[in-house]
Write a structure and sequence with these properties.
Layout: E1 2-9, E2 14-22, H1 37-51, E3 56-64, H2 71-79, E4 83-85, E5 90-92, E6 95-97, E7 104-110, E8 124-130, E9 148-151, H3 172-180, E10 185-187, H4 189-198, E11 203-208, H5 216-231, E12 235-240, H6 242-247, H7 255-272, E13 281-285, H8 286-292, H9 294-306, H10 310-314, H11 330-345, E14 350-351, H12 358-370, E15 378-381, H13 410-419, H14 431-444, E16 447-449, E17 459-461, H15 464-473, H16 478-502, H17 504-515
Parallel strand pairs: 2-3, 11-12, 11-14, 12-13, 14-15
Antiparallel strand pairs: 1-2, 3-9, 4-7, 5-6, 7-8, 8-9, 10-15, 16-17
Helix pairs in contact: 3-4, 5-7, 5-14, 7-17, 8-9, 9-11, 11-12, 13-16, 14-16, 16-17
Length: about 525
């Protein structure tokens, strides 16, 4: 039985999904014969789309509801359609299964077809199918769980593609420039160049504590960074640090509330434009991952703790938003050892976190020296956006006037920007200028100011340096800059507002998160 449906149609993209179930009259020996005529019809239809040069995204899975356990029968049938399976495949539970112990299975597509990732005329394409954990079907963890083969044309996307196929035209230097642009600091740049030259798909690690409503620094900057990383061929593992939030007493240590906040935050990133399709971005819940691999995780944590003195660990408490002078619980003292272990547990090549997480990332590099490990995690620390008021080095969720939240209404954004600190002719310590530099220009590649002709008329800035020159010279006044900034930020946030208005699940999550009391 072949089911074919068009799940999504955009002006430039058609998304098709095929599910092939092998159901047919039984043979005399009790086995079932594959009815491939419908499968052939489905493939013919897909090739018609290709002939008309539509950028296509295919997903299909082969599953058997019969009793045959002979994988050679499936291989034989697949070969008639230009598909072949690698060694080690079996049939179990009615499904084709990849080789034991592999997370990725190779399927070869033959024929002179214009598949993404190569030109026409080739006899073979190697594509990869990621095998998801069955437990990701749980509703409270919003991950894709279909076992599928995906063929993507990344050129059809307006945002950096997260296709699992690395763009072959991009040089190592081009990849380096994209990745390096994310970080305010990189430790070490030569290591990053070497990594990107030798490894097609480096693993980047980022993480967050689910601790309340998401402000624009966390929401928009992370989306920009992740899209840049995936466009350069990196895989991104985002650590949903629910256990860490509990250790740090966020949401009063209530794990159920923390889970709700985590789900809300993932909805934010999906709606603002983080490109999570294609299997190159994973949201991993710390509680689930640690529980499933406890025998690997806890000895690593204990070894890190054993090799470091308490004063060294205390210097890392900044990562939790604490200071060494705070009265800390034993759980909070253990926290840095766990976060350090996360880097190795997730097999991260790059730690892509904020500057406030720098000390624990350096601890991970020091640990490599202790254990004589040659390859150290590269630290790529992004800039921390300040709060909207004077002297606020970091945007704070506990001070609504200093933060723009991702689902703030347009009027709220306008009021907050209007009241924001923005001294004329001064760029240093000016939060409005920083928001343009780190949010607006990377998002739109331009910043447009609308003014009356007597005030200089409309002007579009392409570079931050050009903007700084006009602002410091007094050619651009805060009274003109602020409305332009509000307009740009509202344009970024509008899809988020729409999602949390129209999607019932997202709407419920936001309502519940707003009702929670934020705890430090």
């Amino acid at each position: 039985m072949l089911g074919l449906r068009i799940d999504e149609m955009r002006p430039k993209t058609a998304v098709l999904k095929f599910e092939t179930a092998i159901l047919a009259p039984k043979l005399s020996d009790g086995e079932e014969k594959c009815t491939w005529e419908r499968l052939a019809a489905g493939f013919c239809l897909s090739f018609l789309f290709l002939l008309f040069s539509l950028p296509l995204h295919f997903e299909f899975s082969v599953r058997s509801s019969g009793k045959s356990q002979d994988v050679s029968r499936y291989k034989s049938e697949l070969s008639t359609h230009g598909l072949s399976l690698g060694d080690g495949w079996t049939v179990a539970g009615g499904y084709l299964q990849p080789p034991v112990g592999t997370a990725v299975a190779m399927v070869t597509v033959g024929g002179p077809y214009n598949w993404s990732g190569g030109g026409s005329g080739k006899t073979e394409r190697h594509l990869y199918m990621k095998m998801e954990d069955e437990q990701t079907h749980e509703q409270h963890i919003p991950n894709e769980s279909m076992e599928s083969l995906s063929i993507n044309n990344s050129q059809s996307q307006n945002i950096p593609s997260s296709s699992s196929l690395v763009v072959p035209e991009m040089s190592a230097e081009e990849r380096y420039q994209i990745v390096r642009s994310i970080g305010e600091e990189c430790i070490q740049e030569d290591e990053l160049r070497n990594l990107l030259a030798k490894k097609p798909e480096p693993i980047c690690y980022d993480g967050f504590e689910p601790s309340g409503r998401m402000h624009i620094a966390q929401g928009v900057m992370k989306a920009i960074s992740v899209n840049k990383l995936t466009s350069a061929g990196c895989r991104v593992k985002i650590w949903v640090a629910d256990w860490f939030a509990q250790l740090n007493n966020k949401m009063g240590g209530d794990l159920k509330k923390i889970e709700v906040v985590g789900r809300y935050m993932i909805e934010i990133w999906k709606s603002v434009g983080m490109n999570i399709d294609g299997g190159k971005v994973e949201f991993l819940w710390s509680s689930k991952e640690i529980n499933s691999r406890a025998a690997e995780y806890w000895p690593l944590v204990m070894d890190i703790a054993r090799r470091n003195k308490l004063p060294r660990i205390m210097r890392c408490v900044q990562i939790m938003g604490r200071s060494e002078q705070d009265e800390l619980t034993a759980a909070q003292i253990f926290y840095p050892c766990m976060q350090c272990a996360d880097i190795f547990f997730l097999k991260a090549d790059i730690c892509q976190l904020g500057m406030d997480q720098r000390k624990v990332n350096v601890l991970a590099r020091e640990y490599c020296d202790d254990i004589k490990r040659k390859n150290k995690p590269i630290i790529l620390s992004h800039h921390m956006l300040p709060g909207l008021q004077q002297g606020q080095e970091k945007m704070s969720k506990s001070d609504p006037s200093s933060s723009i939240f991702m689902e703030d209404e347009e009027a709220e954004v306008n009021v907050k920007i209007k009241k924001a600190y923005c001294p004329p002719k001064i760029v240093e310590g000016n939060p409005c200028m920083e928001y343009i530099k780190y949010l607006v220009l990377p998002w739109f590649n331009k910043f447009t100011v609308e003014r009356n002709p007597e005030n200089g008329g409309n002007k579009t800035y392409i570079s931050f340096e050009e903007l700084v020159a006009d602002y410091e010279a007094g050619e651009l006044h805060p009274g003109d800059l602020k409305p332009a900034l509000s307009k740009a930020l509202n344009k970024i946030l509008q899809p988020v507002r729409d999602h949390f208005t129209n999607d019932s699940n997202a709407k419920d999550l936001l309502k519940r998160v707003k009702a929670f009391r934020v705890t430090r």
